[in-house]
Amino acid sequence: MHVPDGFLSPQITLPAWVAAAPLWAWAARRQFGRTPVEALPVMGSLTALAFVVQALAFPVPGGTTAHVSGVMLLALLYHPLTAFACESLVLLLQALLLGAGGVTTLGVNALALGLLGPGAGWLAWQALRRRHERAAAFAAAWVATQASALAVAGVLGLQHALSARYFPVPFPVSLAATMLPSLLLTGPLEGAYTLLTLSLLRKARLHELA
Amino acid sequence: MRRLAAALALLAAPVAPRAHELVHQVERGRAVAVRVSSPGGRPLADMPWEVYSPARPGTPWQRGRTDRAGWLAFVPDGGGAWRVRVVDPSGHGLVLDVEAAPPPVPEPPAGASAASVAPAPAPVAPAPADPGPAAWALRPLLGVAAVGAVFAVLVAMRRRREAP
User: Whole-model pTM?
Assistant: First the structure.
């Protein structure tokens, strides 16, 4: 779902950067400045883990690839803004080191994958956690994946409407290509990853540092 | 008169079938071929692509789909940076500029002076190649190290700030 450089026009990338930049500053100051120092290494380890799992793409029918993001875990353990800041760091490093995503599209990718997704997942978690905590964690990760995919599909559709030269695929096609793997594969995998990692952190009692 | 018409018909007979004939020529080394694959080496098959010429960057010169081995190919009509855009409908994809050499000048007629013979086209600049599995394995480690460094700096800053 990382939109690469060259697929979105400045009409979209510039406003996204303008919207994301103050949020990055706010999130970094609020989350990294207030989190207990002892929790920062755990946060860093989970961010590094998110970087690794996002680099592990697996093929899906249709020729594309998919991967889990691992970012909802950060939102559940800390705060959606922490997830936004950490995911933005991951996306920046992916663009610079792996050529995945891009620098011009960093604002769009960060807002879609780091803010909207974890934000929606966090709302689902808040609504469901009292009924069944594990099911709520799974549902939150699934919802986060769908919200991110929907946001990316929406941006691609908007780009096609503004100028098909940048993204020639019509919205219904990109919507189906984005949402089908997300609904059926990536969402459940993200839920399983989140549950498994939460369970391991609890066993190691590392979640108490969060 | 009938003899004249019959003679004309006989003369025209070999020409008539040529109206439906297609001619072709095979030129090797004219096309630019690009192969797209995932970092793991899996070819991106049947993926839509477009190519834009340097002369008309706003209009696709050619559209197509990659073959089962992830290859696409086009024949540039001029030198310069040709933009290739491989578009995965889900938003993944690739945009790259491929430097193409000017097309070769037709052979001069026999007897032309040596000075009028066009120089050979410049070799096409090779596209960045797949760095190989070792590099693909190392780059995630580099990312992990970078994340670790960022958080190490954060911890150091916090400890320094909170030190009495």
Answer: 0.80
